[in-house]
Amino acid sequence: MSLREKIKAGSRITGTMIHDFARPAIIPIIADAGFDFVIIDQEHGPASYQDVQDVVIAAKPYDLAILVRSTKNDYEYMARVLDMGADGLLIPHVDTPEEARRAVSCAKYPPAGNRSYGIRQFLSKFGPVSSSAEYIKVANEKTTILVQAESPESARNIDAIISSPWIDGVVVGPSDFTMSMGILGQYKDEKFVKYCDEILAACKKANKPFGIHSTSMEIVETWKKKGQNIFIYSTVSNMLREKAIEVAGKLRS
Predict the structure, then answer these.
(1) How far apart are CA 131 and CA 134, in angstroms?
(2) 105-120, pLDDT tens digit by residue?
(3) Model pLDDT for residues 127-143, shown as the tens digit of each residue
(4) Which CATH number do you get for residue 49?
(5) β-pair type (210-214, 169-172)
(6) Which pTM does this prediction carry?
(7) Residue 150 · residue 176 · CB < 8 Å
(8) Based on the structure, what is the number of domains in the chain?
(9) Which residues are catalytic?
């Protein structure tokens, strides 16, 4: 079952992000941990297109979707990582319905969008299929598009942003969101929480999943109780650091 199919079935999905370790060897570890997906961060990390392709190939035997946070909401970045075999995209800084439509146009083949024909079926999990026409149909149905809400403008426009049937869910980027408000890192601030509540309410109304990328289990539990169903926790490097500190401390004690 593709990640998009899990979302459509109403499943709670869990993942983490890779900044620094976009290497095939990390994939069995993440898959064995039980995550549904991992996000390769090209917006802030060093992963190349070759790195994306290598990770995608490593993930083929596993029930682990590979998403890419694109450098920006632009065709040359988004369509190309999908050509490398990625299962979908996390698109940063989607503030307007026009930007949401651009994301769909870049990620979906006609008639849903304007993605170019450059099929490399052997890379993706969407095959095998009997023809290129069938592959295009299947890829459109199974490619996941998650958008990031990272400013008050995105909250104000959220109903229109998620109105497209091809937008599969919303993930709040709390650092950029609070930074845009001049309160970086103040994730319990009343105004920020109110914006997040408004986004969550809109997602529930539209039957779309909602998430907040968090490094705090306290925040995770807070939003889980409110109805969060996309869970993106921390990064691989942060989790490695946290566990290393814990183990080193026990060894010294």
Answers:
(1) 5
(2) 999 999 999 999 887 8
(3) 788 888 999 999 999 99
(4) 3.20.20.60
(5) parallel
(6) 0.96
(7) yes
(8) 1
(9) 44
